[in-house]
Amino acid sequence: MAQPVVADLVIRNIGELLTMKGVDDPVVAPEAADLGIIKRAEVAVKDRKIFYAGPKDAGGFVVGPQTMIIDAENKVVCPGFVDSHTHAIFAGTREEEFLMRQQGKTYAEIQAAGGGIVKTVRATRMASEEKLRDALKRNIFKLSRYGTTTAEIKSGYGLNTEEEIKLLRVVKEVALDTDILIVPTLLGAHVVPPEYVSRRQKYVELVARDMVPMVHENHLATFVDVYVDEGAFTPDEARQILKAARDYDMPRKLHADEMEDDHGAELAAEMGCVSADHLIWTNEKGMKAMAKAGVIATLMPGTVLSLGHSKFADARAFIAHGVPVALATDYNPGTCMCPNMLLVMALGVLHMKMTAEEVMVAATINGAAAVGRAGDTGSLRPGKDADLLVLDIDSYRELPYRFGENFARYVVAGGGVIKAPKVFKKKYLQES
Ligand code: NIG
Ligand code: FE
């Protein structure tokens, strides 16, 4: 008879287990209403993967002397959050711009006056690799405190080949040394750097012909992203860069329709992007094109809040058109210095009228799909990465209601317990 499997980690006494039905694909309404909830459940982890996620006492695993046990105390357990859009590698801060915006200055005015993205580019270019590495580690730590177990991280504050590659190398190095899953993205086309303003096309070519091939050859990024905006790149310029990415078989993303309707959503559909992100001003034609092409809408209400704007993306319309919606922080020093996915989910309910179920789907399986990792994370079934949260709430329906509170009590990333109460750490992790 085969030996029973001895679990590495068991989560017991789960009041509400949100399996997301164990799916490996993005979820669109009305399926989003069903979170695959199992009451009185348990989870077992073996070799960093989920071995069992289901009703208690039916798992076919055993507990050994080395097994770590989390008592969920009848609370909620869900998949770790996937923050599918961050700019977490940068130096410096821009709190003055934030405060100026609240006094009435616009993002575009600040950018035109020499602030904005180029301000962070200056600080980032000056920073040593060591300083960037430390800052990135701290930022990842912050993201993970609120339950993020997978994070996409974009370059974009280097804006020449050498500096962009430097950022992606640091991301890669940190990714190998961190518990959460990191998905790197080349955003060489964040804005046109000052050295190239009088010869924009040259910069577009630099990204398309130099950065994309080099990043591809050195396996430095999974995705290529472009910021389409009045103050950044035109749809035609973006098309050239996205085509280069496509030629190298690199999956694509697009910052689209953030400050006005640039027909970014249509461009994302045309170029077969995995996701289009922001989408505040997207029109119906764009939504239809995205639905048809299977592009995920990544919405970031924290950015709208931080910009002091009142218009949020029309999540209801995207969902009505059959577009899968993901939620992300956009964590960056200019437009959203907030690493908190729990708050972003609450904003999804408060300002975009998403349901409690839709925001859970958007932060887990749809986020995973937006970074091309829906086969690995974002839902709970045997074989997927053991990315799990124990939330200190009795029902997921409390999540938006308790906005602002960090109730991510345990965070398990790739089978490792990276956040836990003191008593657990003392017992199992030899920490005082
Ligand atoms: O997603 N939109 C472009 N990029 C960021 C802003 C970055 C910055 O201001 O530094 C965003 O909002
Ligand atoms: Fe962004």
Question: What key phrases describe this protein's structure?
Answer:
2 domains, 35% helix, 16 strands, alpha/beta, TIM Barrel, eight-stranded mixed β-sheet, 432 residues, binds fe (iii) ion, binds N-(iminomethyl)-L-glutamic acid, globular, Urease, subunit C, domain 1
The CATH class assignment of the largest domain is Alpha Beta
CATH topology of the largest domain: TIM Barrel
Can you identify the CATH superfamily of the largest domain?
Metal-dependent hydrolases
Main pleated-sheet profile: 8 strands, mixed
Please indicate the percent range of residues in DSSP E strands (runs of 2 or more). 15-25%
Helical residues, percent:
25-40%
What's the overall average pLDDT, rounded? 97
Structural class: alpha/beta
Radius of gyration: 21 Å
Distance between the ends: 42 Å
**CATH A-level architecture of the largest domain:** Alpha-Beta Barrel
Explain the overall architecture:
The chain is an alpha/beta fold. It contains 15 helices and 16 strands. It folds into two domains: 5-80 and 378-429, Urease, subunit C, domain 1, CATH 2.30.40.10; 81-370, Metal-dependent hydrolases (TIM Barrel). The chain has helices at residues 95-102, 107-112, 117-126, 129-145, 161-176, 200-217, 235-247, 264-270, 284-293, 301-307, 315-320, 341-352, 356-363, 365-370, 422-428, and strands spanning 5-18, 37-46, 49-55, 61-71, 76-79, 81-83, 148-154, 181-189, 223-227, 252-256, 275-278, 296-299, 325-327, 388-391, 408-413, 416-419. It is globular. The relative contact order is 0.16. The mean pLDDT is 97. N-(iminomethyl)-L-glutamic acid binds at residues 87, 116-117, 120, 227, 255, 258, 303, 330, 332-335.
